[in-house]
Structures are given as C-alpha cells and as structure tokens.
Amino acid sequence: RHARVSVLDKEIRMQCIGNDPQILFSNIPPATGPFTLELKLKSSSKGRGMVFWSAAVKPEFSAKSSVTFSPNHDGEQWHEYMVTLPAVTSALTHLRLDPGSAPGLVRIARIVLKDASGKVVKSWIQ
Fold it and tell me: What integer best gives the mean pLDDT of the chain?
C-alpha cells in the first residue's frame, strides 16, 4: 500500500509513493514471543517507522499491536535496527512494516524475526 515493491536477490526496494507506505510479511512459523525484528534499511523517506503484528488468518492491524522506531532517512548509509515486539502469542501470522510516512526510496537488506530465546523464526532477507 502506498508503495511499489521490488524483490531482488539481496534486498527489497520500496518506492514509497504516499504518506502511509507499508509492506506485509507472512508465512510465519509458530514461535513464542516476545519477538525481535532485525532490520537493515537505507531510506530517503521521512517520519517514524512502525511495525504491526497480527495473529489472525486474515491480517488485522491496530495501534495496540504495534511499536514505533526511529529510522534514519539520510538515504546514503545502511542502518541497522532491532525492534522489540511485545507480542507473546504463539500464533503470529503477519507483520506489517511502515518504514516512514512520506514518499522516498526505502531499501531493505535484512529482515529477520527472532523468538524470545533469540532463535530465528523467519528470515525474509538475511
């Protein structure tokens, strides 16, 4: 939503074309939270980032199931983030990444979900 997404061998590129760009991730195996989402981003967007989670078969996202983080939008360097998701459900089904709140190019070179023990649950790009 509000983005054109290209999946390449070593990165995902989001050309954000609106003020609420987002990308959805699914196929998450059962695991026990809280979870940590590791991200490596390069962005020329603006604003705060948000990560939402859902435990529903059809994804449902709300502010109570989200956390914010502060991405660096310099557009020139890769930056790494560890976002803690307090979700304790073992039925996490979807994640939604909102990497900013403005048009720009966001490149994702790492997105890895880890469980409470630090074990990799799902890696979309390492």
Answer: 90
